Predict the structure.
Amino acid sequence: MLRSELPRNVFLDPAQRRDDAERALELAQQAEIIESLPDDVEGLWRGIAHYDNMLAATQDQRKWQVLALLLQDAEDKFQQITHRDGLAAAD
């Protein structure tokens, strides 16, 4: 879509621009955290416990959503590592 075809209010609404910028920042932070998750089981357990505590303590809906996704990503990585390590031990 060409810029000239977009509604004018897309570029003029400061509240929407602020919301979009906040969401972009949240996604960037989430990507950094996912990238920094440790590759060992013990480290992941500590990360999962940390995000779980943060999730329980937050009152902010947006933070809760981001933390819930991070917690899920950490748990998924934990499953991948334990599955990988389990297969390696079976070899």
